[in-house]
């Protein structure tokens, strides 16, 4: 079951509110001694998180299907960068990281327990069955917090961002579990920043693929922080013509932050190929919307283009405009309610 993005948390009674975890969405299938983790897209994920298998096998039911999130914790809160590193082809590295950056499983729904399918049951029943199933089960298996108090849901929205969570999910108490349907509501943090356009990628159709974005540090050095590509077909053709005369060769040097990836650099997903990009004179400024700056290095997702800022000097586009939430202990979110 999926969630529809909305700007405000719904109110009026009949809703349950839960933290929105920033991890990998998975279904856990347990049948006798066999435990499988399956991604939202149907991809097998079991081999990447061996440290979760025995704890999930210890849940007191011979058969169950749970919906939830796999996350990695750090002293600063959820660490999505560390979670990404867990998806690695080498078994030896997977085993090493399972000890260095162990994962947790946060359960938020029960789809089947024993010989009983729960998809058609209302959320109230599924939540009660989930809590009963996992009561007393030790970490790293957790049940997500939930509340029917709208004011508390709003408080969680602000407070839990300091632990790396990215919003709140609202669910109807009387609603069945609807696979592939957007029956839930998600409210995420979104803020804006003015960024310098430092380059662009060309789409295979010859038009603009995306704009590459940069921010200045306190010493005035530009750092790549992400990209935006939310343009119409007509805008992409116009922009490629506008940007072409601004091309320049620029040496970006080595990243100043360990493990930071430069624009066009290789990643695990590029299969060894550099993503081609074109550097331009850093003269244009645009305003983009973003959810968070991941590890202080780059936007967590592609930023959404809002408008051009011809009035803003590129030198004034600095990291100091990025919001930093007050730290909140992740353990306090998952602590049992008194």
Keywords:
19 strands, OB fold (Dihydrolipoamide Acetyltransferase, E2P), 2 domains, six-stranded antiparallel β-sheet, D-amino Acid Aminotransferase, Chain A, domain 1, single chain, alpha+beta, 338 residues, seven-stranded mixed β-sheet
Please give a structural write-up:
The protein is α+β, with helices and mostly antiparallel strands and 338 residues long. The protein folds into two domains: 2-189, DNA ligase/mRNA capping enzyme (D-amino Acid Aminotransferase, Chain A, domain 1, 2-Layer Sandwich), CATH 3.30.470.30; 191-321, Nucleic acid-binding proteins (OB fold (Dihydrolipoamide Acetyltransferase, E2P)). 17% of the residues lie in helices and 33% in strands. It is built from seven helices and 19 strands. It has helices at residues 53-57, 80-85, 91-100, 123-134, 150-159, 233-243, 330-334, and strands at residues 2-5, 15-19, 24-31, 34-39, 63-74, 77-78, 103-113, 116-117, 141-143, 167-172, 182-188, 191-202, 208-216, 222-228, 278-279, 285-290, 293-294, 298-299, 304-308. The strands form four sheets. Strands 3, 4, 5, 6, 7, 8 and 9 form a seven-stranded mixed sheet that branches. A hairpin with a 3-residue loop joins strand 17 and strand 18. The longest helix has 12 residues, at 123-134. The radius of gyration is 22 Å and the shape is elongated.
